[in-house]
Specification:
Rossmann fold; 5 helices; two-stranded antiparallel ribbon; binds flavin mononucleotide; 23% strand; five-stranded parallel β-sheet
């Protein structure tokens, strides 16, 4: 690899610092840095984000009519070589903190008016980024609905989903994934691999 270090952006939907999702995303970031990349770990719970107001086609030439902490998120996603999304499963879906950020990224592939009439979705950047999903839930429940949502989101922001790392467990202890070193190793390995992989062909 030559040139400036590649960037991995971790978007963390967990409200709990030191939670299992947080631990796994930190391991992904460590792996990315071990491989010579940079990482930015964004905690959705700490971001000031107005919920998407579905304002329709082309309300602004920028990303969004609102300017809040999403400006940082847009800049990070645009610069990213890889994007790791993390969320606990809440009522079969992703957390509200993450969903709020995801919805505000609708304008990364905005609906534009065509000169000849009609509309089309036009991505602001090409789909060259690598994507990962990290999650935690009960071993008796499901994460496929959240995974589907995250896969669609990754596509919308110019990434390809490649892997989900799911911590399925029965305890109620924050950060209990620490007792599963093989999962943390897998997360670290995924971070390394994402940074080492060439950008996807545009
Ligand atoms: C509001 C809320 C809703 C939840 N809904 C589900 C659910 O639908 N399925 C599930 O398996 N666990 C559910 N859980 C449990 C969490 O997904 C589980 O504890 C997970 O490990 C949390 O991730 P963390 O350990 O990284 O904090 C819910 C927890 C909360 C707080």
């Amino acid at each position: 690899m030559s040139g400036p270090p590649r960037l991995l952006v971790a978007l963390n939907g967990s409200p709990v610092l030191g939670s299992s999702v947080d631990r796994m995303l930190r391991a992904v970031c460590e792996g990315a840095e071990e491989a010579g990349g940079r990482s930015v770990h964004l905690y959705c719970n700490a971001l000031e984000v107005i919920p998407c107001q579905a304002c329709g086609p082309e309300p602004t030439s920028g990303y969004c009519v609102f300017h809040d902490d999403m400006d940082r998120v847009y800049a990070a996603l645009e610069a990213a070589h890889a994007i790791a999304i993390g969320s606990p499963i809440y009522f079969d879906g992703v957390s509200a903190q993450l969903k709020r950020v995801m919805d505000r990224c609708n304008c990364v592939t905005p609906l534009v008016r065509l000169p000849a009439g009609g509309y089309e979705f036009r991505p602001r950047w090409s789909r060259t980024r690598h994507g990962l999903f990290v999650t935690a839930c009960s071993s008796r429940h499901r994460y496929d609905l959240a995974e589907r949502s995250v896969r669609g989101f990754l596509k919308w922001v110019g990434a390809r989903w490649e892997e989900t790392i799911a911590y399925l467990h029965e305890d109620n202890d924050p950060g209990s994934v620490l007792a599963r070193p093989e999962l943390l190793d897998r997360a670290r390995g995924a971070g390394r691999r994402l940074i080492q992989s060439a950008p996807l062909p545009a």
